[in-house]
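hey so u asked for the seq, here:
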Amino acid sequence: ELQPSSHKNMVEILLAFFRSEGYKAGELMVEGARNQCSDIQAFCTAVEDMVHRSHNSPFFDKFGSYVAEVCGMACTHQVKLNEQLVTMAMAIKVLEGLVVGLNPKVEMCHAAIPILLKAQLRHSMGMIRRATSSSSTANDGGSPSPVR
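ran it, C-alpha coordinates below
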Protein backbone atom coordinates (compact mmCIF):
# COMPACT_ATOMS: atom_id res chain seq x y z
CA GLU A 1 0.00 0.00 0.00
CA LEU A 2 1.19 3.48 -0.83
CA GLN A 3 2.03 5.66 2.16
CA PRO A 4 0.52 9.18 2.13
CA SER A 5 3.96 10.79 1.99
CA SER A 6 4.96 8.63 -1.00
CA HIS A 7 1.67 9.40 -2.73
CA LYS A 8 2.16 13.12 -2.25
CA ASN A 9 5.75 12.95 -3.48
CA MET A 10 4.83 10.98 -6.61
CA VAL A 11 1.97 13.29 -7.54
CA GLU A 12 4.21 16.32 -7.05
CA ILE A 13 6.97 14.76 -9.20
CA LEU A 14 4.57 13.97 -12.03
CA LEU A 15 3.00 17.42 -11.86
CA ALA A 16 6.46 18.99 -11.98
CA PHE A 17 7.21 16.99 -15.14
CA PHE A 18 3.91 17.99 -16.73
CA ARG A 19 4.54 21.64 -15.84
CA SER A 20 8.03 21.40 -17.39
CA GLU A 21 9.64 22.01 -14.00
CA GLY A 22 12.46 19.52 -14.43
CA TYR A 23 14.72 20.94 -11.75
CA LYS A 24 11.90 20.78 -9.21
CA ALA A 25 11.10 17.19 -10.27
CA GLY A 26 14.75 16.32 -9.65
CA GLU A 27 14.66 17.92 -6.21
CA LEU A 28 11.51 15.99 -5.34
CA MET A 29 13.10 12.73 -6.49
CA VAL A 30 16.13 13.41 -4.28
CA GLU A 31 13.80 14.18 -1.35
CA GLY A 32 12.20 10.77 -1.81
CA ALA A 33 15.58 9.03 -2.11
CA ARG A 34 16.84 6.73 0.61
CA ASN A 35 20.45 7.81 0.39
CA GLN A 36 22.46 10.91 -0.32
CA CYS A 37 22.89 12.17 -3.83
CA SER A 38 26.53 12.79 -4.76
CA ASP A 39 25.67 16.08 -6.49
CA ILE A 40 22.08 17.26 -6.08
CA GLN A 41 22.50 20.25 -8.38
CA ALA A 42 23.97 18.12 -11.19
CA PHE A 43 21.17 15.55 -10.87
CA CYS A 44 18.45 18.21 -10.88
CA THR A 45 20.07 20.01 -13.81
CA ALA A 46 20.23 16.74 -15.76
CA VAL A 47 16.52 16.14 -15.12
CA GLU A 48 15.79 19.72 -16.17
CA ASP A 49 17.77 19.24 -19.40
CA MET A 50 15.83 16.07 -20.18
CA VAL A 51 12.54 17.92 -19.66
CA HIS A 52 13.66 20.73 -21.99
CA ARG A 53 14.64 18.19 -24.66
CA SER A 54 11.23 16.53 -24.31
CA HIS A 55 9.51 19.65 -25.64
CA ASN A 56 10.32 18.45 -29.16
CA SER A 57 7.93 15.50 -28.87
CA PRO A 58 4.86 14.57 -26.87
CA PHE A 59 5.86 13.40 -23.38
CA PHE A 60 4.39 9.93 -23.64
CA ASP A 61 5.88 9.25 -27.08
CA LYS A 62 9.23 8.62 -25.42
CA PHE A 63 8.11 7.83 -21.89
CA GLY A 64 10.12 4.60 -21.74
CA SER A 65 13.24 6.47 -22.84
CA TYR A 66 12.65 9.09 -20.16
CA VAL A 67 12.26 6.43 -17.48
CA ALA A 68 15.52 4.81 -18.60
CA GLU A 69 17.26 8.19 -18.69
CA VAL A 70 16.09 9.10 -15.17
CA CYS A 71 17.28 5.72 -13.91
CA GLY A 72 20.66 6.30 -15.58
CA MET A 73 20.93 9.75 -14.01
CA ALA A 74 20.02 8.27 -10.65
CA CYS A 75 22.85 5.74 -10.97
CA THR A 76 25.33 8.40 -12.06
CA HIS A 77 24.46 10.71 -9.17
CA GLN A 78 23.84 7.96 -6.59
CA VAL A 79 20.15 8.66 -6.09
CA LYS A 80 18.25 5.59 -5.00
CA LEU A 81 14.85 6.33 -6.49
CA ASN A 82 11.73 5.49 -4.56
CA GLU A 83 10.81 1.95 -5.61
CA GLN A 84 7.15 2.87 -5.77
CA LEU A 85 7.93 5.73 -8.16
CA VAL A 86 9.85 3.41 -10.48
CA THR A 87 7.08 0.81 -10.31
CA MET A 88 4.48 3.45 -11.11
CA ALA A 89 6.56 4.77 -14.02
CA MET A 90 6.80 1.28 -15.49
CA ALA A 91 3.06 0.75 -15.02
CA ILE A 92 2.37 4.02 -16.85
CA LYS A 93 4.61 2.87 -19.69
CA VAL A 94 2.70 -0.41 -19.97
CA LEU A 95 -0.61 1.46 -19.88
CA GLU A 96 0.65 3.87 -22.53
CA GLY A 97 1.60 0.95 -24.75
CA LEU A 98 -1.85 -0.57 -24.41
CA VAL A 99 -3.60 2.72 -25.13
CA VAL A 100 -1.46 3.49 -28.16
CA GLY A 101 -2.02 -0.06 -29.41
CA LEU A 102 -5.77 0.45 -29.20
CA ASN A 103 -5.87 4.02 -30.46
CA PRO A 104 -2.65 5.78 -31.51
CA LYS A 105 -4.42 9.15 -31.59
CA VAL A 106 -5.20 9.19 -27.86
CA GLU A 107 -3.10 11.72 -25.99
CA MET A 108 -2.64 10.32 -22.50
CA CYS A 109 -0.97 13.47 -21.23
CA HIS A 110 -4.16 15.48 -21.69
CA ALA A 111 -6.13 12.87 -19.76
CA ALA A 112 -3.49 12.45 -17.04
CA ILE A 113 -3.09 16.07 -15.97
CA PRO A 114 -6.64 16.54 -14.61
CA ILE A 115 -6.39 13.22 -12.77
CA LEU A 116 -3.10 14.28 -11.15
CA LEU A 117 -4.52 17.66 -10.19
CA LYS A 118 -7.54 15.97 -8.59
CA ALA A 119 -5.23 13.63 -6.68
CA GLN A 120 -3.20 16.57 -5.43
CA LEU A 121 -6.36 18.43 -4.39
CA ARG A 122 -7.78 15.40 -2.57
CA HIS A 123 -4.51 14.91 -0.74
CA SER A 124 -4.38 18.58 0.24
CA MET A 125 -7.97 18.52 1.45
CA GLY A 126 -7.24 15.44 3.54
CA MET A 127 -4.26 17.20 5.12
CA ILE A 128 -6.44 20.21 5.96
CA ARG A 129 -9.11 17.97 7.50
CA ARG A 130 -6.55 16.12 9.61
CA ALA A 131 -4.96 19.38 10.77
CA THR A 132 -8.34 20.87 11.65
CA SER A 133 -9.34 17.70 13.44
CA SER A 134 -6.09 17.62 15.41
CA SER A 135 -6.38 21.23 16.48
CA SER A 136 -10.00 20.72 17.56
CA THR A 137 -8.99 17.78 19.70
CA ALA A 138 -6.09 19.70 21.25
CA ASN A 139 -8.20 22.79 21.96
CA ASP A 140 -11.11 21.18 23.75
CA GLY A 141 -9.38 18.12 25.12
CA GLY A 142 -12.14 15.94 23.74
CA SER A 143 -12.88 14.18 20.54
CA PRO A 144 -12.52 16.04 17.27
CA SER A 145 -15.52 17.87 15.94
CA PRO A 146 -16.59 17.02 12.41
CA VAL A 147 -15.20 19.22 9.65
CA ARG A 148 -17.96 20.89 7.69
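DSSP finds six helices and no strands in the chain. Residues 4-137 form one domain.
lmk if thats what u needed
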